[in-house]
């Protein structure tokens, strides 16, 4: 016999012999069997008890088995249904499958076949329970996050539900370092804040630092602090970021742009969990969770000697990857609706409708700037809109594809090779800046060091 913990099976058949034969065959300490001779009795059992699998006869009093199946799927969608019938009618088989039955048997059937069907159906039961758990977690965490921060992580795609689940799990840990990867504009800082505000550290400071904006001369002073008179201009004692975020969370954005010699200092502090202010010999312990983010592949960068491998392993105990918006387009209408309501509220507007042509146009767009770009689009559209309906004229969408194609220097056929797209983009920026690396880096919205590494990687020469 198969053995499944606490599997609850309902047998609905107006023939007592069938009910008794099936229930006797399925006797098992891990099974709980319910029997019913009429649909009304069966639904009363389902309303009072958790049922996982229902075995339902097609020909029943009160209503047909197909009507029972349809009602179960409407009122108890988590229950898997196996249909049985005294007639081998193909129409009944097809109809029952369309209504959601997991299997169909014709009487007289072999009990072993029913047993095997229950074994197969059990997998659907377990999968359904897992999906329901993910949905519950998604709902609970979204609600908690909204209450803590006043806004939400929006999305119904499989990726977003999995993301919420991961955030909830890692938030429960005290000190686990988290590395968030993904393209610019995907919401890496939002995820970092979610982890912080759903953790036991939420009452303490969340401190965000952009690593690409820290000059080498100020690194130690900014991260570790300094004492009064430690150097020219140090007129007061300064608290560093590690100390400021003590008992809280330190978020390190664009950590891949941190210079190598600074990475060495940073790694030593993470290993010792102590800092020393510039100008002081006193070591100060700190208790801070580190969350880092990058739009680069740090493993690949470490192979090119652009990032320390030991630092990568130190900060990546738990990795969360954010998919670009173009890979989860089913979330675009939800995000559009959310941002319209958001800007409605803060701008005191009354926009309650969006033209379907706008949605179609947005779904056709690749969004190189991801969610941030969509948010900016909606903000501008809401500002311009003078009616209660957003239309194409509010969005500047007519030339979207042309601009996107030009920016990435595509030929007539679309290119999906990511490295080739990146190389073409760099070449375009260098051409526009007359090969001035600083200006090209500004156009690409990356640091000079990041651009230099990519130029070497792709062997780009003037």
From TrEMBL:
<dbReference type="InterPro" id="IPR011006">
    <property type="entry name" value="CheY-like_superfamily"/>
</dbReference>
<feature type="domain" description="Response regulatory">
    <location>
        <begin position="8"/>
        <end position="122"/>
    </location>
</feature>
<keyword id="KW-0804">Transcription</keyword>
<keyword id="KW-0597">Phosphoprotein</keyword>
<keyword id="KW-0238">DNA-binding</keyword>
<dbReference type="InterPro" id="IPR025662">
    <property type="entry name" value="Sigma_54_int_dom_ATP-bd_1"/>
</dbReference>
<dbReference type="InterPro" id="IPR025944">
    <property type="entry name" value="Sigma_54_int_dom_CS"/>
</dbReference>
<dbReference type="InterPro" id="IPR058031">
    <property type="entry name" value="AAA_lid_NorR"/>
</dbReference>
<keyword id="KW-0547">Nucleotide-binding</keyword>
<protein>
    <submittedName>
        <fullName>DNA-binding response regulator</fullName>
    </submittedName>
</protein>
<dbReference type="InterPro" id="IPR027417">
    <property type="entry name" value="P-loop_NTPase"/>
</dbReference>
<dbReference type="GO" id="GO:0005524">
    <property type="term" value="F:ATP binding"/>
</dbReference>
<dbReference type="InterPro" id="IPR002078">
    <property type="entry name" value="Sigma_54_int"/>
</dbReference>
<dbReference type="InterPro" id="IPR001789">
    <property type="entry name" value="Sig_transdc_resp-reg_receiver"/>
</dbReference>
<feature type="domain" description="Sigma-54 factor interaction">
    <location>
        <begin position="153"/>
        <end position="383"/>
    </location>
</feature>
<dbReference type="InterPro" id="IPR003593">
    <property type="entry name" value="AAA+_ATPase"/>
</dbReference>
<dbReference type="GO" id="GO:0000160">
    <property type="term" value="P:phosphorelay signal transduction system"/>
</dbReference>
<dbReference type="GO" id="GO:0006355">
    <property type="term" value="P:regulation of DNA-templated transcription"/>
</dbReference>
<keyword id="KW-0805">Transcription regulation</keyword>
<keyword id="KW-0067">ATP-binding</keyword>
<dbReference type="InterPro" id="IPR009057">
    <property type="entry name" value="Homeodomain-like_sf"/>
</dbReference>
<dbReference type="Pfam" id="PF00072">
    <property type="entry name" value="Response_reg"/>
</dbReference>
<feature type="modified residue" description="4-aspartylphosphate">
    <location>
        <position position="57"/>
    </location>
</feature>
<dbReference type="Pfam" id="PF02954">
    <property type="entry name" value="HTH_8"/>
</dbReference>
<dbReference type="Pfam" id="PF00158">
    <property type="entry name" value="Sigma54_activat"/>
</dbReference>
<dbReference type="InterPro" id="IPR002197">
    <property type="entry name" value="HTH_Fis"/>
</dbReference>
<dbReference type="InterPro" id="IPR025943">
    <property type="entry name" value="Sigma_54_int_dom_ATP-bd_2"/>
</dbReference>
<dbReference type="Pfam" id="PF25601">
    <property type="entry name" value="AAA_lid_14"/>
</dbReference>
<dbReference type="GO" id="GO:0043565">
    <property type="term" value="F:sequence-specific DNA binding"/>
</dbReference>
């Amino acid at each position: 016999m198969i053995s499944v913990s606490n599997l609850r099976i309902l047998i609905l058949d107006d023939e007592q012999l069938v009910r008794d034969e099936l229930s006797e065959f399925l006797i098992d300490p891990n099974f709980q069997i319910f029997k019913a001779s009429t649909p009304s009795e069966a639904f009363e059992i389902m309303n009072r008890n958790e049922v996982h699998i229902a075995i339902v006869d097609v020909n029943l009093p009160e209503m047909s088995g197909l009507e029972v199946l349809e009602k179960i799927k409407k009122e108890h969608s988590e229950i898997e249904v196996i249909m049985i019938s005294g007639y081998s009618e193909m129409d009944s088989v097809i109809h029952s499958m369309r209504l959601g039955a997991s299997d169909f048997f014709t009487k007289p059937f072999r009990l072993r076949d029913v047993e095997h069907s229950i074994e197969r159906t059990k997998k659907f039961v377990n999968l359904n329970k897992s999906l329901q758990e993910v949905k519950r977690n998604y709902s609970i965490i979204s609600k908690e996050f909204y209450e803590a921060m006043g806004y939400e992580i929006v999305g119904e795609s499989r990726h977003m539900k999995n993301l919420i689940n991961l955030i909830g799990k890692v938030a429960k840990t005290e000190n686990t370092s988290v590395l968030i990867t993904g393209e610019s504009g995907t919401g890496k800082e939002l995820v970092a804040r979610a982890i912080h505000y759903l953790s036991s550290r939420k009452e303490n400071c969340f401190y965000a630092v952009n690593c690409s904006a820290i000059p080498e001369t100020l690194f130690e002073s900014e991260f570790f602090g300094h004492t009064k008179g430690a150097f020219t201009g140090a007129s007061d004692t300064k608290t560093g970021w590690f100390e400021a975020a003590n008992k809280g969370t330190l978020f390190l954005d664009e950590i891949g742009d941190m210079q190598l010699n600074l990475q060495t200092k940073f790694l030593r502090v993470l290993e010792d969990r102590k800092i020393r202010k510039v100008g002081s010999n006193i070591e100060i312990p700190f208790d801070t969770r580190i969350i880092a983010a990058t739009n680069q592949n740090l493993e690949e960068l470490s192979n090119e000697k652009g990032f320390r491998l030991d630092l990568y392993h130190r900060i990546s105990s738990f990795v969360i990857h954010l998919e670009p918006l173009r890979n989860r387009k089913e979330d675009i209408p939800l995000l559009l609706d959310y941002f319209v309501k958001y800007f409605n509220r803060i701008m005191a507007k009354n926009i309650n409708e969006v033209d379907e042509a706008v949605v179609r146009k947005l779904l056709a767009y690749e969004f190189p700037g991801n969610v941030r770009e969509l948010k900016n689009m909606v903000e501008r559209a809401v500002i311009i809109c003078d009616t209660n309906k957003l239309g194409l004229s509010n969005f500047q969408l007519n030339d979207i594809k042309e601009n996107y194609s030009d920016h990435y220097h595509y030929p007539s056929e679309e290119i999906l090779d990511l490295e080739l797209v990146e190389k073409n983009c760099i070449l375009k920026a260098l051409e526009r800046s007359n090969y001035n690396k600083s200006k090209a880096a500004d156009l690409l919205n990356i640091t000079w060091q990041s651009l230099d590494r990519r130029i070497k990687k792709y062997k780009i020469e003037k």
